[in-house]
Specification:
seven-stranded mixed β-sheet, 19% strand, globular
Length: 350
């Protein structure tokens, strides 16, 4: 029922009765200029009042659009273990993308679970299988986790990855997440503040500001830091947004780190706008973010797998096509991939 799903989405975005990982390696807070002593905070945007939450639940009774129960994936080509040139991007599902550059395999927000929820019997359930089985992944050197919401930090998938990898990957996330990640077996759990960086192989990974929130339980709301990633590689710079609303941070990051060979930008889970605007881009805003970032190409992610909000399963693609047309941008600049499909990106200056 819509009200049940809406309530589960609120648990996903606002919190539920669990409590995992609160501080930076169990040290005393505060530890950041955007931490007020109790919570992290966005530079822009605002939290929703109790009345807004009640309105969202009530309107969900008739506003949520139907989704199919299952969507088949097209057959996918086998992955390569390593690449010898350029940047190879394989879209797996939701915000999970395999990025392969020379000498480095990077995985973003790994999610293979059937539900993105604190419980296995309720909450958003996938309608599409991951485009790549988790056991078919090549060796992973780096895992990036943008924030700790259940559809981005999936403990079951991370545990499976840790167990099946011969060499332990480095896992990088925002402040406050290392405690949980180390519980999952990642000794190399790196947590960063906005503006901090970590070198891995021939790449530099920057954790940068975005506009979202965090929390896996009632007691840890906004206690860990959310963010986006800039990945500087010899083959070109990449941007992984994670989850975010639209704000001036895109232009600032484009000026500081751009141009980008490719940006991974979310285009789904955005209706109703009055409730989701501060924390989730819609396709029109994603195209604007692409311009702000000075990105040569962008891949749309975060759609068509889990029903998190009110739009239909194909509405993000319809709205993206319209946004590209209205902003006079070719579809070759901002595109999507089927789960399991891949594309090689070579920057224009190479």
């Amino acid at each position: 029922m819509p009200i049940t799903r809406a309530f589960c989405v609120l648990l996903l975005l606002v919190g539920c009765a669990t409590n995992e990982g609160l501080t930076k390696d169990d040290k005393e807070l505060p530890f950041s200029t955007h931490y007020d002593g109790k919570h992290f905070k966005n530079t822009n945007g605002s939290d929703k009042a109790a009345g807004d939450i009640a309105k969202f639940l009530w309107q969900s009774l008739w506003s949520e659009k139907p989704w199919p129960k299952a969507v088949d994936n097209a057959p996918a080509d086998p992955l390569v273990a390593r690449v010898t040139e350029g940047i190879r991007i394989t879209y797996i599902n939701h915000a999970t993308v395999l990025i392969q550059t020379v000498g480095l395999n990077i995985l973003t927000d790994p999610v293979w679970s059937q539900r993105v929820s604190p419980v296995s019997f309720a909450g958003p359930k996938r309608v599409r299988a991951p485009g790549v089985p988790i056991e078919a992944l090549p060796e992973i050197d780096v895992i990036l986790v943008s924030h700790n919401h259940y559809d981005h930090l999936d403990t079951h998938s991370l545990t499976t990855l840790r167990q099946q990898q011969e060499k332990e990957p480095v896992i990088i996330s925002g402040l406050g997440n290392a405690k949980l990640l180390k519980k999952l077996g990642f000794a190399q759990a790196i947590e960063l503040d906005w503006g901090e960086q970590h070198n891995v192989g021939n790449a530099t990974v920057h954790f940068v500001e975005c506009q979202h929130r965090s929390g896996r339980g009632i007691h840890d709301q906004m206690k860990t830091l959310w963010g986006s990633f800039v990945i500087e590689t010899p083959a070109g710079n990449l941007y992984f947004a994670g989850d975010t609303g639209y704000s001036p941070h895109f232009k600032a990051q484009g000026e500081r780190y751009g141009p980008f060979a490719l940006s991974l930008l979310p285009i789904g889970a955005y209706e109703p706008r009055w409730f989701m605007k501060d924390i989730h881009l819609n396709p029109e805003e994603a195209v604007r973010a692409h311009r702000d970032l000075n990105s040569e190409q962008s891949l749309g992610i975060h759609f068509g797998v889990f029903q998190l909000t009110w739009e239909t399963i194909d509405q993000p693609l319809i709205d993206l096509e319209e946004a590209l047309r209205e902003q006079q941008m070719p579809q070759t600049a901002f595109w999507v991939l089927e789960p399991g499909a891949w594309r090689t990106v070579i920057p224009s200056d190479q």
